[in-house]
Amino acid sequence: MSSVFKGRVSMKFLECAVRDVIYGINVRIVKPVNIYECELRDNVFVGPFVESKRQRSTVLTLIYW
Fold it and tell me: Which one, 11, 27, 41, 61, has least CB within 10 Å?
């Protein structure tokens, strides 16, 4: 979705998402994040503005706390 101001795009609204994630116990996620097709193991903290992407056929294991 975008708005037009004086003939130019002035603002865009982007969604955050957590999709197809395998997760363990005690997982904490602070929005905004975009996390797709990855694994979050036990006791994981994911801070704001994190993005994961699937690489080939493997999954990423994200930030541990």
Answer: 11
